[in-house]
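Schema walk-through. Below, the input block comes first and the output block second. Nothing else is stored per chain. Lengths vary across the set, and this one has 416 residues.
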Amino acid sequence: MKHFLPNLVYADEQGNIYDEPGLKMLCRQGNDFALPRPDELIPLPPESELYLLPDRRALGFDPQTGNIEAIEGTAVAAFVCPGYTLAGLPAYLTGERAPRLPLFAYGAVGYFQGKFWVAAKQIDKDRRQVFAHIPQKKINIGAHRLLKKYPRNRLVKHLARCALNYCCPAAKNLALGRFEAPLPTSRSCNARCIGCISLQPKDSGFPSTQNRIDFTPTSDEIVQIMSWHGQKEKKPIYSFGQGCEGEPLTEAKLILSAIEAFRLKGGKGTININTNASQPETIAPLALAGLTSIRVSLNSADRERYTSYYRPQNYTFDQVVQSIREAKKNNLFVSLNYLFFPGINDTEQEVESLIALIQETKLDFIQMRNLNIDPELYLDHIKANLGPRLGLKNFLKRIKKNCPWVNFGYFNPYLG
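--- output ---
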């Protein structure tokens, strides 16, 4: 089993999925196609999904001829469940009329001995976004109980709707009174990310996957949710900066007020901000108020590739780095929300840039997230061809060897 190669999988016009024994699974890694590495193949994890990729012909490797072949079948991709990082993207030939793919992460998938296999690695065993054995009724009861407790709280209404109608994992956990409480606050953003999941221009060719919050909550509305969650969860995490909002630091004064009020009431737990880290001057006051950690979103530690994806408005990559410095100076725990793209982030140049950033700032933790975007759209924008890849496994080893204090995961850790 150590050196097997899964078969290519494809779908017919009705959406039925088949494997093709004569062709083997291929992975896209940056601009190249390659066979999956044996140490990067795992069975498709539970709670993952398979997606059909419209007007894209599946590509496979013919071991008899050594050629890459396209078949008359629709390409298939895997969306792996949280806790796993992709090591390879699906290989396909894009048709002239192919629409842009929506904002999901697309993993290479094959089939062998009765199982689907994906090129990925489990990064985090935390089960905070696993709901397989939790009945929806229990989530519904929790959401309605929260609504009854705070009938005039607009943020409660927003998050209850997210739990009841939109299957948001963070909102469902709030309804269940466990793990991490989401605290969306900001209607605006000072970046124009190509893959923004809460706001897309009409000419982007694809919709945002979430609706951005359309009001600004009050400090009291935020604190009510924090207090509720702190009574339910023994190790509570409270997180500003959610998928349904803009950049939380644009509401730094509001967040500071909420944190101060919560801490003055004796509120315990980890208070975190998921942020683009664009405003270093806000970090010290937030830390003084009682902030515990920040998670900085980053697709690359290279200034040019960062800028081409985030398209910052009135801030620069240097200010992002300065925010990390300020956070460490003020004893905050600093994570990267590292948007990993196989064949780009695991190349020599990218790894060296990331190591230099970690060593200079002494940041603490890397959350290995998958970049949710049409792969070809991303490659068109960053225009990077960085040479051979190290592979995900070697990427992790290289970072750990050079920065032994850094740990990897997928979620915001509880810090006490």
